[in-house]
Amino acid sequence: MTLQPALTVRNLYKRMGRKDIIKGVSFDVFPGEVFGFLGPNGAGKTTTIRMIVGLIKPTSGDIFIAGHNIRTQFTKAMQQLGCIVENPELYDYLSGRENLEYFARMDRSIDKKRIEEVTKLVKLESRIHDRVKTYSLGMRQRLGIAQALLSGPKLLILDEPTNGLDPAGIHEMREFIRSLAKESQLSVLVSSHLLSEIQLLCDRVAIMTNGEVIKTDRVSSLLTTKEKVIWNVSPISKAREILQKETDVTEHLEGLITPYSEENVSLWNKKLVNKGVQVNEIKKMKPALEDLFLELTGGKKSD
């Protein structure tokens, strides 16, 4: 059985003046997955998110949230969406529970049971009656997520969820988001400039540049296609001459680098040895997502 996406973006365009700044963007986010949305400065990522959350209207194309088209079923679509942009807005002088009760009053369908459910989901049971001013930044983020989940949305959008956190807090937030998505089958779209964190956090990513999505795939698949091999060999000049006849070769502090190919590595190794090259070590190297990102976006850093 095919799962219905919590978010479907199809052929999305946004024109400003005479210029298309978003050009045919399409992707899906499925239940239970953490989806990374990446792009360098000016790529159009923020504009796309603003269209998804209903702050600006697309020029053309469709956005469906839990099957509801935001153009024709705006209210129903927005009811299935929770969103936090950087630091959540909370009242420091109130307890965590009182903050949730305050926001729950805006939606009559939210009862005390739901407040208890989201408190448990974000693992704040032991501190929910303490004032928010005593919370760490990570706890504030989790309370903000609880607030965004009050109405029971199918899709949660988090913009820079680890912003300002120390390494321990980043690790805790990463584990929390992953467990939240898995346990509740919630779809989570994450935007972040920390590519190393996105690599550890997300199941799939979409990489955007110049208003277009240029790559969408599982993080593991993207990185596997860019795996390299480091050859620690001697003499290095002779090895380079042999390998250059077979594949692309670059030099590294530890030796020579070639693309990884399981079937070719043993063949290349045999050729080197037969030609009198001493092969000391063959080491597979998986690239960081940042390397792939910079390659695909022409060296532009994430915003």
From TrEMBL:
Keywords for this protein: ATP-binding, Nucleotide-binding, Transport
Domain ABC transporter residues, every copy: 7-235
Keyword Lipoprotein among record annotations: no
Listed SUPFAM superfamilies: P-loop containing nucleoside triphosphate hydrolases
SMART domains: AAA (SM00382)
PANTHER family, sorted: ABC TRANSPORTER, ATP-BINDING PROTEIN (PTHR43335:SF4)
Protein name: ATP-binding cassette domain-containing protein
Organism: Terrilactibacillus tamarindi
